[in-house]
Amino acid sequence: MTAIALGMPTGPKGRPETMTDAVMPTSGPMIDTFGRAVRDLRVSVTDRCNLRCTYCMPAEGLDWLDKADVLTAGEIIRLVRIAVRELGVRAVRFTGGEPLLRKDLTEIISAVAALDPRPEIALTTNGLSLARSAEALADAGLDRVNISLDTVDAARFAAITRRDRLPDVLAGLAAARAAGLSPVKVNAVLDPETGLSDATGLLKFCLDEGYELRIIEQMPLDAEHHWSRTTMITADQILETLRADFDLRPDTAPRGAAPAQRWIVDGYRTPDGKPARVGIIASVTRPFCGDCDRTRLTADGQLRNCLFAASETDIRTLLRSTEYSDQDIALRWRQATWSKLPGHGVNEPGFLQPSRPMSAIGG
């Protein structure tokens, strides 16, 4: 398998191109030894969740982090400030677990929105309580939202999430739209057994309501390690299914570091009159590691330079010590980024699933 097929950074002859002879820069944006610049920070504010999705965690839930180990609002704000002012981060996304379980989330967003330069601020949520909080989040400075929704069939929603809460998610979507958190995006992970039959209904729903659908290949990040390459629904299967009912053509706009490959849905328009689109995030079958611009912070203060990283960098200890300045923390962050591997390795023979599940890492 070639480096290009793995989605790795490549040189002019298709070989992985590294800068291992270079010296790590101590100013400007964070980069790794492959020259990829980090501009996007994913911050998990909690590992707790009020759903029990079958592809994520067991029905009884997980052993949650101790409260003392979870970063406080002040600690999160300080780290985001360092990332924005010292390290060149321009986009911040708050995730979980379920981030709306943090009662101080609005406070965190408000403080981040006050930074100069101001980053773009986004949120990924399951939407259960969004109907109550969308307006306050928008007022605090939240720019846009992604809401997880794997099916619009009530019975299948209850089976996948182990909770009968579809009306709450639909209300959350409508509230986000009303609050101006646009474009409102829907993130869907299709169930291996029933998912393909849900894809068309999801897209029709999103097109009718003015939301933008993103269908994500299921990744090996489940707590019970049940993921199987042989049963996962692939991007090609998703595209074939959608094309049976919709006229799709590739979106030729530059993709940049965005994870989704997008298609224009002919015959449909967004609420502001633009062509409607659907995206597919093929993390497994069509990796985009070569364009990755992300860094991740877990709820307990660990840095991850890749979603699938086998190791983490402890930043909480530095944060809670009076011996370390913002500049010291920024340097540690740069070092963690500099050591980033060329690709996630999911398609390599020796790949090992991360010990932490997605809910503990942050989406």
What can be said about the biggest beta sheet? Answer: 12 strands, mixed
Number of strands: 12
Overall 3D form? globular
CATH class: Alpha Beta
Task: Give the helix level as a range of percent.
Answer: 25-40%
Spatial strand arrangement across the major sheet: 7-8-9-6-5-4-3-2-1-10-11-12
Question: What's the structural domain tally?
Answer: 1
Order of helices and strands: EHEHEHEHHEHEHEEEEEEHHH
Low-pLDDT residue intervals, each spanning 5 or more residues:
1-6, 11-16
Supply the CATH superfamily name.
Aldolase class I
Task: Report the total helices.
Answer: 10
Brief summary:
This protein is an alpha/beta fold.
Q: Can you walk me through this structure?
A:
The protein is an alpha/beta fold and 363 residues long. It has one domain (40-361): TIM Barrel. It has ten helices and twelve strands. The chain has helices spanning 73-87, 105-113, 130-140, 154-161, 166-178, 195-209, 235-243, 316-319, 326-338, 358-361; strands at 40-44, 91-95, 120-125, 144-148, 185-189, 212-216, 248-250, 261-269, 275-281, 294-297, 302-304, 313-314. Strands 7-8-9-6-5-4-3-2-1-10-11-12 form a twelve-stranded mixed sheet. α1 crosses α9 and α6 crosses α7 (235-243). The relative contact order is 0.17.
